[in-house]
Write a structure and sequence with these properties.
alpha+beta, D-amino Acid Aminotransferase, Chain A, domain 1, 7-stranded antiparallel beta sheet
Length: 296
C-alpha cells in the first residue's frame, strides 16, 4: 500500500521550521521545511534543501545516540509521502516536556552576554576571567522555556526547569541525559574536526512514561558548530550554523520584530553551502547519499 499524499493528512501543528501531520493513534509525520528564522521570526524566503539536511543530520545522530536515550523515529521511508521524502520522518507521538534542554560546552551567544553581566549562566556561577568562545571546565545545562510561535525563548535556571516540568527527578534525568548526549556528540564532532559549542534538545515521554528525545537533534538549527582549525578564544567564531544569517540580519538594522527581511541570494547560497558542509563533515558521507537512500 502506497503512503498517503500530504494533502490527505490532517495538519496537527505548524512551527517555525516543521509541520506535524496526524497518522493515527500512535504516530505523526514530522516534516522539516526550508524555512529559516532568526530571533524567532521567520524570513520570507527559504534556504533550498535546508529541511533535508536537518532531517539527514538528525537521522545520523538519532542512530548514533540510541544507546544513550531512545528516540521517536519510526521510519524515514515507510509511510512517508513521496513529495516529502528526505525531509520527513514517521515518528512516535510523545507528551513533550515544556523546556528546551540546552547544553553549553563553550561560552558564547546569549551565555556570553549573561556571563559578562553577572558571572553566571542560568544561575550557574562560572570561573572569573573567561574569554568569549572559551571552552568551559565542563558542559553545563542551561534550560529555557518553549516560546509560542513569534515569541522568544527565555533562559531559566534548573529550579525553573523543575517548576516547568513539575517533577525534580524527571528534570534531573533530562539534565543528565542532555549532558550525556552533548558529550558523546562533541567527542565525535571533534574527531571530524568540528567543535560543538552548544546545542539544545527536546524531550518527551512515551505512552509508558519512558524519557525519549524527539524533534531534531544536533543540527545546524539547534546547535553551534565551529571548524576546529580556525578556533581561537577571545571573539566570535565562524560557524556551520545559521549564525551566518543572524550576522547578516543584525547588519541590516532590523529590529528583530516581524516581519523579517528577505534574505539576499548570496546569503541564501552561502547558508545552504554551510548546512551541506556540516552534514558531510560530521557524517563523512555525501549529502547526495542521503537523498538516494530516501528517494521515492
Amino acid at each position: 500500500m502506497s503512503p498517503p499524499s500530504l494533502a490527505d493528512l490532517p495538519l496537527l501543528h505548524r512551527g517555525k521550521v516543521r509541520e506535524m501531520y496526524d497518522l493515527g493513534a500512535d504516530t505523526v509525520l514530522l516534516v522539516a521545511s526550508d524555512r529559516i528564522s532568526t530571533y524567532d521570526v521567520i524570513h520570507p524566503n527559504p534556504i533550498p534543501d535546508k529541511g533535508k539536511v536537518l532531517t539527514a543530520l538528525s537521522a545520523f545522530w538519532f542512530e548514533r545516540t540510541a544507546p544513550i536515550v531512545p528516540n521517536h523515529v519510526v521510519s524515514y521511508t515507510d509511510g512517508v509521502p513521496a513529495e516529502v521524502r528526505g525531509r520527513a520522518a514517521v515518528v512516535r507521538k510523545l507528551t513533550m516536556l515544556p523546556v528546551e534542554a540546552v547544553v553549553r560546552g563553550y561560552i558564547t551567544g546569549s551565555g556570553w552576554t549573561d556571563y559578562q553581566a553577572t558571572g553566571r549562566v542560568s544561575g550557574i556561577e562560572l570561573p572569573p576571567g573567561l574569554q568569549e568562545s572559551q571552552q568551559l571546565p565542563h558542559p553545563i545545562f542551561t534550560p529555557s522555556t518553549k516560546a509560542a510561535l513569534g515569541d522568544h525563548d527565555e533562559a531559566i535556571d534548573f529550579d525553573g526547569a523543575v517548576a516547568a516540568i513539575g517533577d525534580r527527578a524527571l528534570a534531573e534525568r533530562v539534565r543528565d541525559t542532555a549532558i550525556a548526549l552533548y558529550v558523546a556528540a562533541a567527542e565525535h564532532a571533534a574527531s571530524r574536526g568540528v567543535l560543538l559549542a552548544d546545542t539544545k534538545f527536546e524531550f518527551g515521554l512515551d505512552a509508558d512514561g519512558t524519557l525519549v528525545v524527539g524533534d531534531e537533534v544536533l543540527t545546524p538549527d539547534s546547535s553551534r558548530y565551529w571548524p576546529a582549525d580556525g578556533y581561537e578564544v577571545g571573539h566570535g567564531q565562524p560557524s556551520y550554523d545559521k549564525q551566518y544569517v543572524r550576522d547578516w540580519a543584525r547588519s541590516t538594522g532590523w529590529d528583530k520584530t516581524p516581519p523579517a527581511p528577505e534574505v539576499p541570494e548570496d546569503i541564501v547560497a552561502g547558508t545552504r553551502a554551510r548546512y551541506v558542509e556540516a552534514y558531510e563533515t560530521i557524517t563523512g558521507e555525501s549529502f547526495d547519499s542521503w537523498l538516494e537512500r530516501t528517494a521515492a
